[in-house]
Design brief:
By secondary structure, this protein is α/β, with parallel strands linked by helices. The protein is 26% helix and 19% strand. The strands form seven sheets. An eight-stranded parallel β-barrel has the order 1-2-7-10-11-14-15-16. Strands 17-18-19-24-21-22 form a six-stranded antiparallel β-sheet. The chain has a two-stranded antiparallel sheet with strand order 3-6.
C-alpha cells in the first residue's frame, strides 16, 4: 500500500530527534531488539506468488496463505521502517518449502503458511518468493546493520497430506504421540497427531527419501545436491543419519546467504546434544561465508543461537525440568540464549519486581548467557494484552527489561491478538495492520523512542540494574562507561525532579532521549519540565 505524505510524516515522527542522538554503541546480542514476523502475514510485495503449488484459498479463518513474501519484507527494510524502531535483528518464520496441500489439524483446514511444516529443507517456498528474493532480503538487512535469525526445525516434517507423502520409516516415527511426562514422552514421540518426528537419536544410515530424490531430479538439481551431501559426509565423517542431513541443509542457508544466527524451534523435543552438534556445523558454515564475504560481516561476526524450550522461564536458570526427575541444560548444548516464556506472567507485576528479578538472574546463574523476552508471540495463547489496551506499558516492560527483547510484528501499532472468527493460535497470526499506522502513530512513536534508546545503550539489556526511586519509579543501568537513568509513569502536571545520584555527577550535562531536551544535574537530580511520562537520560 502507498502511504500519504501525512501518514509518512507521522510514521517517522518518532525519529525526529535521531540526528541529535549519540551513535549506537557496539551491538550486543544480549541487548538485541529482535523483530519477529510471520513472513506470509507481514507485507505482500509480489501478488503473482500468493498461491503456489496448486494451493487454494479454502482454509479456515487465518489458516491459509495470505500473500506476505520476502519482496514485501525487503521493501519495508529499505523504507527505514525497522531503523526507526531501533531493530537490530529480524527473525522470520522458516522460509523452506512447505507441504503443498492443506490438512485439518482439528481447527479447520490449514496450510503451512507459518513455515513449520517442511517438505523440502533445501528449497524456498514459492509462496514467499525465490532464492534471489531471500538473498535480497538478507543483503538489505545487512546493509542497514540488521542481523537475520533463521528459524530452523530439527524435530519434525510437515504433516502427511493427499499431496505430501510420509518420509521413510528410517527417517521418522509416526507414533506414539507425546504425553510430556518425562524425557521419553517428550522427545521420542510426535508432538501432535500426523506430525512425523525425525529420529534425531539414530545413528543408522538412511538413503534420501524417494519422493525428495524424484523432486530434485524433476528440478534438475539431483546431481548437485547429492554431490554436496557426499562431500559433507566425507568431510565430517558423520554417519548418514537423519539429523546430519538436517544439519547440512540448515547450515547451507548460512553458507549461501550469510545468516547471523538460528532460532531453534521445539528445542526441548530434540536431544540437547543434537543442538550442540548443529552449532558446530553452523559455525563452520558461517566461518566459510565470512571468509568469502569479509566486507559484509557485521560487527564481530558472532553467530548466535536462541532456543525455544517451551515453558522455559528465566527463573529456571540453567536447568530445565524435563519431568520424571530429569533436567537438561540447553545453554551447555549450543545455545547462547533461550526464549523466556515467563515474561507474559512476570509482566503482570510492577516494574521493579520484573526488572530486579531479571537483572539478578542474568548477573547470577545466567551470567554469560541471555534470555529473549516477549509479551506475545505466534503460539502463546495467553499474550500479555490481547485486546491492546496497554500498549505503552507493554513497550516499557518489554524494551526496558534486562535481556534481549522480541517485538512480535504489529506490537508497535497494536495489532489485535484476539481475532473473533479465528480459532486457537490463528488468532495471533492476522495480517500486519498497516492501515492502523496513522491512527496509532503516538503508540508507534513511543515504541520507536524506547527502541532507539535501547539500541544506543547496551546497558539497558546487559547492564547492572539499580532502583533509584519509587515515585516516580526510577532506575539506572550501567555497563562500563555506558550509563542510563530511566523514569517511568512520571506525573505530567508540573515539573518533576528525577533522581540520578551516584550515576551522573552534579554539573553533568544529560539529555532526555524521549523529549530531546538537555538538563544539568544539580543536587543529585534533574529538574524536568513535567510534560512526558517517560524520561530516558544519558550523557
Amino acid at each position: 500500500m502507498k502511504l500519504s505524505s501525512i501518514a509518512l510524516s507521522l510514521l517517522f515522527s518518532a525519529g525526529a530527534h535521531s540526528a541529535f542522538a549519540a551513535p549506537p554503541k557496539p551491538f550486543l546480542w544480549e541487548n538485541a531488539t529482535v523483530y519477529f514476523l510471520v513472513t506470509d502475514r507481514f507485507a505482500n510485495g509480489d501478488k503473482s506468488n500468493d498461491l503456489a503449488y496448486g494451493r487454494k484459498a479454502d482454509a479456515a479463518p487465518l489458516r491459509g496463505f495470505m500473500g506476505g513474501d520476502f519482496k514485501g519484507l525487503t521493501a519495508k527494510i529499505k523504507s527505514g521502517y525497522f531503523d526507526d524502531l531501533g531493530v537490530d535483528v529480524i527473525w522470520t518464520t522458516p522460509p523452506v518449502e512447505q507441504v503443498h496441500a492443506g490438512t485439518d489439524e482439528g481447527t479447520g483446514k490449514s496450510y503451512g503458511f507459518h513455515g513449520y511444516w517442511a517438505r523440502d529443507f533445501t528449497a524456498m517456498d514459492a509462496n514467499l518468493g525465490t532464492e534471489k528474493d531471500f538473498r535480497d532480503f538478507v543483503e538489505a538487512a545487512h546493509a542497514r546493520g540488521i542481523r537475520v535469525l533463521l528459524d530452523v526445525v530439527m524435530n519434525h516434517t510437515g504433516p502427511v497430506t493427499v499431496a505430501d507423502p510420509a518420509w521413510p520409516e528410517g527417517w521418522v516415527r509416526t507414533e506414539p504421540q507425546c504425553s510430556y511426562k518425562d524425557v521419553a514422552t517428550t522427545v521420542s514421540c510426535t508432538l501432535v497427531k500426523n506430525l512425523p518426528d525425525f529420529r534425531t537419536e539414530s545413528d543408522a544410515p538412511v538413503e534420501l527419501p524417494e519422493a525428495l530424490a524424484a523432486k530434485w531430479k524433476s528440478e534438475g538439481r539431483y546431481e548437485r545436491e547429492t554431490k554436496e551431501l557426499d562431500d559433507f559426509f566425507a568431510r565430517t565423517g558423520y554417519p548418514r543419519a537423519p539429523r546430519y542431513y538436517l544439519m547440512k541443509w540448515h547450515a547451507d542457508w548460512v553458507r549461501k546467504f550469510g545468516i547471523d544466527g538460528f532460532r531453534a524451534d521445539t528445542a526441548k523435543h530434540v536431544e540437547p546434544g543434537v543442538w550442540a552438534e548443529l552449532r558446530k556445523v553452523a559455525l563452520a558454515a558461517h566461518d566459510e561465508w565470512k571468509s568469502l564475504n569479509p566486507k559484509q560481516v557485521l560487527g564481530d561476526g558472532r553467530f548466535f543461537m536462541v532456543g525455544e524450550v517451551y515453558n522455559y522461564n528465566i527463573a529456571h536458570g540453567l536447568d530445565f525440568d524435563m519431568g520424571g526427575g530429569a533436567k537438561a541444560n540447553f545453554y551447555a548444548n549450543g545455545f547462547d540464549g533461550l526464549i523466556n516464556f515467563g515474561m507474559v506472567h512476570d509482566a503482570k507485576g510492577d516494574y521493579e519486581s520484573l526488572f530486579g528479578k531479571y537483572a539478578t538472574q542474568l548477573a547470577g546463574p545466567l551470567k554469560g548467557y541471555t534470555v529473549m523476552n516477549y509479551m506475545d508471540s505466534h503460539d502463546d495463547g495467553n499474550p500479555f494484552d490481547p485486546a491492546r489496551q496497554k500498549p505503552f506499558e507493554t513497550a516499557n516492560k518489554l524494551l526496558l527489561a534486562p535481556g534481549a527483547a522480541q517485538i512480535y510484528y504489529g506490537d508497535e501499532i497494536s495489532r489485535r491478538l484476539d481475532v473473533a472468527d479465528a480459532k486457537g493460535d490463528a488468532k495471533l497470526r492476522s495480517f500486519m495492520n498497516w492501515g492502523d499506522l496513522k491512527a496509532n502513530a503516538k503508540i508507534r512513536a513511543h515504541w520507536a523512542k524506547l527502541g532507539k534508546f535501547r539500541q544506543q545503550h547496551p546497558a539497558i539489556g546487559a547492564g547492572e540494574h539499580k532502583k533509584l526511586a519509587d515515585a516516580p519509579y526510577t532506575f539506572s543501568r550501567v555497563r562500563g562507561d555506558d550509563k542510563v537513568v530511566v523514569a517511568l509513569d512520571v506525573k505530567t502536571v508540573q515539573p518533576v525532579d528525577i533522581a540520578v545520584g551516584g550515576v551522573f555527577a552534579d554539573g553533568a550535562k544529560v539529555r532526555d532521549a524521549y523529549s530531546g531536551l538537555s538538563y544539568t544535574v544539580k543536587n543529585g537530580a534533574v529538574h524536568t519540565n513535567g510534560k512526558n511520562a517517560t524520561i530516558l537520560l544519558a550523557q
